[in-house]
Design a protein that fits this description.
The chain is of the alpha/beta class. It folds into two domains: about 220 residues, Rossmann fold; about 100 residues. Helix 5 packs across helix 6. It is globular, with a radius of gyration of 21 Å.
């Protein structure tokens, strides 16, 4: 089985997101492009923004290049052209600006290496993806930048491939735990009640916070951010509260303060936009589940596959077959690939 088997004919826009820098995201992206070229699938590529440095300041290495075939469609910034080996034909200069110039829609006239830097907001990434489809792409791949896991958001892409690897920890079990946790967040249940979903989504769009009671009545919570607002949210939860809508990010401190303020949280469902808004590590998440905290999302993220990289730039590595087998066991039924070894 190839990665493209999970995508072809099922999705038009997918993202590749790395759990950390050097987790194997670019190798995964290049593998997808290779498989698409073999199958005659015309690819469109963009990214979730990038700084203007050609040198990776964290690892002091050259930023990874992406190899594209002739006729590949690309949305990138004017500033990346000086790093590009493939000859590009400009199809459109958009009015979207970044620190590296305007976003430009191009077509590769020759095969070769390119660097990609895309828009900075989810809204602009979605516009760019739609433009690439309009210009003739069969499939658009969004290259998710470091700590920009929001590219996995359903408002941008239909499904996500998660790249993970040894770079996360010298302890293989910790890497598996972190990866499982991320996949679990991606797979959180969606709000099933359509009326509640619409009410909550409208509040979230305004970056607001509220209580929804048994009669579907909305009671606003007057806070600007949930970061230090856990106690206020906790006091707002009443006997007839059914939902707490969180218009921003959901973090560990917020839930801890709510749990310390009231025990009524056990009968409440917390609603967030999607899993990219949750910033809680695996250990704390297990604790919150144990004490009865329930979280649902407006938009569920579809984890398509996970790719593993057993090598870390720091010089250590895992036994590739052992790492792949263990990750498959714990992530089943989600397919897991080692794109260096090849195959699933």
């Amino acid at each position: 089985m190839q990665l493209m088997d999970a995508i072809q004919d099922n999705y038009k826009i997918v993202s590749v997101v790395g759990m950390a820098k050097n987790a194997g995201k670019t190798v995964t992206l290049n593998q997808l492009i290779d498989e698409a070229m073999e199958r005659g699938i015309r690819i469109g590529i963009t990214s979730t923004g990038r700084d203007g440095e050609n040198q990776d300041l964290v690892t002091n290495t050259e930023k990874p290049m992406i190899y594209v075939d002739e006729e590949t469609l690309i949305a990138t910034t004017e500033g990346t052209f000086k790093y590009t080996e493939a000859k590009l034909e400009i199809l459109e200069v958009t009015n979207m600006s970044t620190s590296m110039g305007k976003i430009v829609i191009c077509k590769a006239k020759t095969s070769g290496y390119v660097q990609i830097a895309g828009p900075n907001t989810n809204r602009e990434i979605k516009i760019v993806c739609d433009k690439l489809l309009t210009y003739g792409a069969d499939l658009v791949i969004v290259d998710g930048a470091l700590d920009r896991i929001s590219s996995a958001s359903p408002s941008v892409t239909e499904a996500t491939i998660l790249a993970t690897g040894a770079v996360l920890s010298r302890d293989m079990n910790k890497v598996i735990e972190k990866t499982m946790h991320q996949v679990q967040l991606f797979s959180l249940p969606q709000v099933q009640n359509d009326k509640i979903k619409k009410l909550a989504d409208a509040v979230i769009e305004e970056k607001g916070y509220c209580i929804i009671d048994e009669d579907d009545k909305i009671v606003p919570i007057e806070i600007k951010t949930a970061l230090n607002g856990g106690e206020i949210i906790g006091r707002a939860i009443k006997d007839n509260t059914k939902y707490v809508v969180i218009g921003g990010s959901l973090v560990t401190n917020t839930l801890k303060k709510i749990a310390e303020t009231t025990r009524k949280y056990k009968k409440v469902i917390f609603i967030v936009k999607d899993a990219t808004k949750i910033f809680i590590d695996a250990k704390d998440w297990m604790f919150f589940k144990k004490i009865g905290i329930q979280v649902e999302v407006i938009d569920r993220i579809k984890p398509l596959a996970v790719t593993v990289n057993p090598y870390a730039p720091q010089g250590y590595y895992y036994q590739p077959e052992e790492f792949l087998t263990a990750m498959k066991k714990f992530l089943d039924p989600i397919p897991v690939f080692d794109v260096v070894l090849g195959g699933e």
